[in-house]
What does this fold into?
Amino acid sequence: MAQPVASVAALSSDGIAVPSANPGAASSLERPDLIQQNGQREVFCGLTSIVWLHRRMPDAFFLVVGSRTCAHLVQSAAGVMIFAEPRFGTAILGERDLAGLADANEELDRLVRDLLERRPEIRTLFLVGSCPSEVIKLDLAKAAERLSRQHTGRVMVLNYSGSGIETTFTQGEDNALLSMVPLMPRSDEDQLLLVGTLADGVEERLTSLFQRLGIGLIRSLPPRSSTELPPVGKGTRMLLCQPFLSGTARALVDRGAQFVRSPYPLGVEGSRAWMAAAAAAFGIDPATVAAVLDPLVERGRRALAPHREVLAGKRLFLLPDSQLELSLARFLQQECGMELVEVGTPYLDRLLMAEELALLPPATQLSEGQDVERQLDRLRAARPDLVVCGMGLANPLEAEGFVTKWSIELVFSPIHGIDQAGDLAELFSRPLRRRALLQLP
Ligand code: SF4
It folds into this structure.
């Protein structure tokens, strides 16, 4: 669903302490070439983010309060765990609940009690709202408060919405992190706070690089243990790892964190700029940044070269789905030589995306939200070489002869950082190589 653009301007500028990495960013905020759409959309809902969040916090449990459809979605996206108990589940709202004939709160309390008796290792329980729970106006915030009281000292109960009425699939993570922000302790000590889920190995690599740059204290949200929430306060420099954390970023700024503006860590140049922005926020000399990062940059550019051969000059159409589209477009245009036909995004957060917008070619056709049939008409007319889209559209487009890339793969793959730039480019060059092989006589 397209978000009102006005909501984007709501972030207080008090917390923006670090100068823009690109002084031209402000001029890019007004874009006459933006198509805003508010029609039918084809994106996964926020429940999908449970797939990566439950892996990140093994002591948490995600209980979707929803329908059988919701249960199928999460289970098929996350896979069935054969050797371990799952850390997600669905409290299925039956017909009696939906018709208001049963007290869904009583049912929920009983189910949570049974779950916690069976699973003593659960430390944080997320009640995740869905379309059905939204429609019957089940108040999960009150339920979380009540259950927290009932199980004080045993488990922390939080709630957020993953409903498809309200969220696209990456907004599920934003809502989950947002629910944790009020519980973060206060501390004004100097620290770098990495915000957004990264693959564990990627996070370790980036943390060791930040330490080599001279940043002493580095913490993450979400943490690896759900009960070890990082503190936040005036000494916190917040560096977003993902561009879809609008609500969380604003809540952290309200808690005193300083927002480090930067492009996102996708590709060699984006990742270098991202790390350099963090270093600048701690007053670290650019020469130190160059000494640590330049050898990696050289290696990263070499890793990109074979993929650039495939991608350069190819025309790219990104449909709105993951909210990574602007960063991907910047990387694929700037570092891989692709031509941008249209860059769609579910919603355009002009503050969080200012540095990315400034790096896109000025005439780039952007679109915000979706009116899927009209967008597909534009796509068919343009005949791009590669389409990045959701799974639901990929197969029909392949059947029409388009080469596609599932955008959901990008949130499940370790793509952040200079070291990963080659692998990121390969995700886009592979389908083009495959098509070329299939077309060989
Ligand atoms: S939350 Fe809504 S969109 Fe998502 S699976 Fe459930 S019913 Fe479908």
In short: The first helix runs from residue 50 to 56. The chain has three domains: 15-22+186-290, 46-167, 304-438. Residues 45, 47, 66-67, 69-70, 73, 130-131, 162-164 surround iron/sulfur cluster (CB under 6 Å). The first strand starts at residue 34 and ends at 38.
